Amino acid sequence: MTDRDPIYRRHRFSAEIIAHAVWLYFRFPLSLRMVEDMPAARGVVVSHQTIRLWAEKFGRTFANEIRQRSSRRHGDKWHLDETVVSIRGKKHWLWRAVDQDGFVLDVLVQSRRNAKAAKRLMRKLLKGQGRSPRVMITNKLRSYDAAKKEIMPGVEHRSHKGLNNRAENSHQPVRRRERIMKRFKSRGNSTLRLHPRSDCQPVPHPTP
């Protein structure tokens, strides 16, 4: 992305400053006011309200670009797992998939922990990756097996808690965010903050 990109029209700050601020917000467990301090240290004064608007406008666009660029590098062994998160005081389930190298393939926040929710995750994975894995590894939750038989019947499924440490470990950054941010403010915003690229690599900084 460059300053000439149509999405940057009517923005007073350069594409580089915008991208860096959005990257900081989604990549690290920082509040908006903490992110506000980062450009200020370089002499760039940006309000936390402006950074919030940038995150809402550009976050998904940046994440999708990174997903497209990195989609061919993922492994053929997928680890799936789910963990509970609190959004506005209500319990939701964060479903996450990583490959054998720990690269986050996708995440999905849902209100249920059942076969229907597992199917949604698998369909989303297949759509995003464009192919099935060679092996799928999960915990003992029966919903995975039921969903796998319908969505990916030809894929080898290994169900064992000890084998699924990669997926379980990938939830740790989320726990750190929860402790610092106290709670997620909305389901939509939590999905962005938990986007697969936010925990594995930075948004590329565009050249103005």
Question: What is the N-to-C order of secondary-structure elements (H for helix, E for strand)?
Answer: HHHEEEHEHEHHH
- Strands, count: 5
The low-pLDDT segments are 196-208
CATH superfamily membership of the largest domain: Ribonuclease H-like superfamily/Ribonuclease H
| Broad structural category | alpha/beta
**Helical content band:** 40-55%
Tell me the distance between the termini. 8 Å
Radius of gyration, Cα only, in angstroms?
18 Å
| CATH class bucket of the largest domain | Alpha Beta
Helix count? Answer: 8
- How many domains? 2
Largest sheet strand order: 3-2-1-4-5
Outline type? elongated
CATH topology name of the largest domain = Nucleotidyltransferase, domain 5
| Main sheet: strands, sense, barrel | 5 strands, mixed
Give the percentage of residues in beta strands.
15-25%
Instruction: Output mean pLDDT.
Output: 78
> Which architecture of the largest domain would the CATH scheme give at its second level?
2-Layer Sandwich
Report what the structure shows:
It contains eight helices and five strands; from the N terminus they run αααβββαβαβααα. With 208 residues, the chain is of the alpha/beta class. It folds into two domains: 6-70; 74-170, Ribonuclease H-like superfamily/Ribonuclease H (Nucleotidyltransferase, domain 5). Strands 3-2-1-4-5 form a five-stranded mixed β-sheet, with helices on both faces. Helix 1 (15-27) packs across helix 2 and helix 4 packs across helix 5. It starts with 14 loop residues before the first helix and ends in a 15-residue tail after the last helix. Mean pLDDT is 78; it is low at 196-208.
